[in-house]
Structures are given as structure tokens and as C-alpha cells.
Amino acid sequence: MGRTPLHPEVSQVDLQQVLEALVDPVRRSIVTQLDAAGEDLKCGSFDIAVSKSTATHHFKVLREAGLIRQYYVGTARMNALRRAEMDDAFPGLLDALTTRQAKGR
Q: Positive or negative CA dihedral for 88, 91, 97, 100?
């Protein structure tokens, strides 16, 4: 395994866990920023107004809910939105979230 954290199979994650992860506005922002970027992003590149330790907690919650995958490139921890897997498991959920966030609601 090395430094790569464990990731659940999306088939093992229930909708309740995903919704609980997305209830927090910081975590919703992380997901929408990843979606808008269309590429994997370093933890430090997100526009979130929280401390590093709080951000680490938010990334962990998203990872454990199956929403993101984290891996290292050198010393940078990268974050990838697991959109295809989430779309298969929970069709329309991320579309509803990202469309609503993009409209500023």
C-alpha cells in the first residue's frame, strides 16, 4: 500500500454515507472544484478557507464516502473525483450537486 490511503469500493458505500459527506459546504466545494477542474488537484490548490488539519479531515470524509481517490505524486497528495463510479452507483447525484453549486445556490 505504501503512502496511498485506503479507498472503499463504491459498491460498499451506501447513499446515506455519501449524503452525510456532502452535507458540509466545504466538502461540497471540494467536489465541485474537482468537477470543474476536470483533472486531479493537489490538496493545497483548493479554494477553501479552513486550516490544513481541518482540510485533511474533509478530504478523509470524502475519501471514506467513496467520492474521491487520493494518491501521491512526489510529495503532493493528489485528489481525483470518482465521478464515473459515483454516476454508476448514484445516477444524477453529482450532476444535481455540481449544477446547483455552479448556479450559486
A: positive
Which residues are within 8 A (CB) of 58 and not within 5 positions of it... i.e. 6 or more apart? 24, 26, 27, 30, 48, 50
Strands (DSSP E) found in 1-105? 41-42, 68-73, 76-81
11-68 pLDDT, tens digit each:
889 999 999 999 999 999 999 999 999 999 999 999 999 999 999 999 999 999 999 9
- Cα 67 to chain center, whole Å? 5
Residues 6+ apart with CB under 8 A from 60: 5
The dihedral region occupied by 68, where left means phi > 0, alpha psi between -120 and 50, and beta the remainder, is: beta
pTM of the model: 0.89
Query: Three-state DSSP class for 88?
Result: helix
> How is residue 13 written as a grid cell?
458505500
